[in-house]
Design goal:
- The protein contains 17 helices and 12 strands.
- The chain is of the alpha+beta class.
- The strands form 3 sheets. A 5-stranded antiparallel β-sheet has the order 1-2-4-5-3, sandwiched between helices. A 5-stranded antiparallel β-sheet has the order 6-7-9-10-8, sandwiched between helices. A two-stranded antiparallel sheet has the order 11-12.
- Strand 1 (30-36) and strand 2 form a beta hairpin.
- Helix 10 (290-319) runs parallel beside helix 15, helix 12 packs antiparallel against helix 13 and helix 15 packs antiparallel against helix 16 (434-450).
Length: 501
Amino acid sequence: MPADETIPIDPTIEYNLERMMKDFGESDDLVIREIHDDGSLEISAAVVYIDGLSDTTAINCYIFDVLNHLIRQVPTDKQKDMMSTETLARELLNGMGSIRIVAELNELYKNLLSGEAIILFKGIHHAYRADIRDWKGRDVTESTNQTSVRGPRESFTETLRTNTSLIRRKIKDPNLWLETISIGRLTKTDVTIMHINGVAKPSVLTLVRAKLKAIDIDSILDSGYIEELIEENHFSLFPTIYNSELPDNVAAQLLEGKVAILVDGTPNTLLVPTQLVTFFQSPEDYYQRSLYASLLRILRYGSVFISLLLPSIYIAITTFHRDMLPASLLIGLAAQREGVPLPAFVEALVMELTFEILREAGLRMPRAIGQAVSVVGTLVIGQAAVEAGIVSAAMVIVVSVTAISTFTLPAYSMSIPIRILRFAFMGVAASFGLFGIVMGLFVLLLHLCALRSFGEPFMSPFSPYHATDVQDTVVRMPRWLSFKHPGTSVGGGSERIRKRK
């Protein structure tokens, strides 16, 4: 049946059941339970559900038994009366909770495949759907990708309703609004837009709705599909959509005026609009004293510059600017490189590529041995390369410090462009020295200032400058000095909700 074809539900139960069996190819997991009139083969009611998606206990112990009891107690001559059937349906509705009417076959299929049970009555032009979903899902556990020493340990799961409930527990306000749409012609994945009414910017909400409704694709299996389809800067290395699997982090950014996009089947929640500084912030920064959080943030910014520029600076100095080094250090480096046949750029390129291969191999290996293999492999290969005279010991130190600095970023999605840009800076350093590095930084800064995330500047609050929002960027001001919550340039300036309640 075409996805856009609208077919009303027939009042004849037999026709509806035959159509369902045909459309589902007589699949084994499509369960149909019929209720017949006493002394007759005519079907009075039927319950249809997908085995494994619906709560069979609720169907057997309540829906089917109640239907069977109600139909048995109605006289046979009244069963043919449509008004009596409507009365019977209302009695069932009074005894159950979330039951709604469905009038089209396409909508019925969507609800059926979402885990709801479908109830059909003879002589009625619509059916009823009971929300008794009971599919198996992962329990709420601690995140393995975004860890923290202090703070909540819970993380999102692959079940959409579990994820929304985790956020509801933290923001107990009726102004936290949810809007769910279905995306994907075949998968029909539920995507929920979550925001705080009066805090989120209306223009951002309008843009998010328009972009999501414009998506025309067969399948949505992960939030990464949505992220790639709605981002504005398709050719930029930098992500302009933030993702998190921590409910406290999402709740905090909702309070700042962000809009959350939750996708059924994935534990990662998308947040828009976002700024560059968000990728350097950790939820843990708000659970400890501001002095400690500020020092850790400064350390992160410094680590990013080390990860991005340390190999290129080493290449530039050893190739073009040796006179900048003290004599003793220059003599030591020259002695190390005396037997190395490769130039500094090729030497750094080989070591960086080797480490990236080991990093990727460690991720794909079984978890029990992946970390050990990546660490031991790096040490063995580095030591063997130095002893073989292929690379110098100083280069091994530079590459090791660079690699370790990359892991200080709380957001993994930001470490990927840093790793890519590292090779670009190594190239300009080998060609133009420190002048090339400075020009590369200038071009990178211009690119970052030109980026926008759902209409908002990516470099805010530095460009354009917002004095109020700067209090929570490189350093975090103490709470007793924060008179106005950051994010007002995004959230519309609501002062009644402070940051990180």
